[in-house]
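Structure ticket #2291
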Amino acid sequence: MSRLKTSLVLEGGGMRGAYTAGSLTWLIDHDIEFDNAYGISTGAVHLVNFLLKNKKDLFDFSTDAIADKRAIGIRAILRCGRIVDYDFVFDELMVAQRGFDMSGLKDITTDGYVGLYELDKGLTVYYPVKEMNLDELKASTSLPIIGKIVNDNGKEILDGGITDMIPIRKSVEDGCNRHLIITTKPGNYVRKPAKPAIVKLMKMTYPQCDRISHDYEVRHLNYQDQISMIKDLEDKGEAVYSYPSKESKVTRLGGSKEELSELFNLGYEDMEMRKDAIFRLLGV
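Resolution: structure written out below.
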């Protein structure tokens, strides 16, 4: 019989990641750890704070900093030319104002990974969290077109959610056989195909990467495959799939502090509701 190898798998979702942050806070409160952990997009930021056992930043970042009007929209466009100013979010709101510090990651025992899309390769590569720098963490949340390319030691990188919205395949490939999966969309969510105009814009915006527009064009199919894999693992008793049990007004790029706090609390409550299944899965 193979050894139990547990993993935590986190979807992105922008501001909807407040749900993930609340869920991870529940895990910290119950002293639950994993052999491996995987984060995509906003899920990568929350993963880092989870691995650092930083409940304050999990709450503050997902309900306060992310709702700062200077970070998203007109002010961001005027400052950096993009809808979201990720430099402002990380450098000012997280590091300068809240003292965010990644140095403790070198001491974590979990094998954590964050997905980043490397434009020169045209694929998503998983970076070990212990070796990541702040620029790479910024890139993990930098959506195409909405955010800017991050240049990291000559590599041009973006959000890995271009291909891997839910990094479950990586978890399975790494030999994990018990998966706790947290997503930010309802269980009945169906991703729509990308609009042709967006696909064309991707080609124009990233002429150095022929692959990215194709990856975006088939993104909905990749998402369906990832959901199918999750449901198959559920049916075999090898996964618990946690997603919002109630509707929320929070969107990828919109939500008030009150709405974000409610979503954070829902994440915590949903984990409590599923605790028996989670304990069985992880052998707690």
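Closing remark: The CA atoms of residues 48 and 149 lie 21 Å apart.
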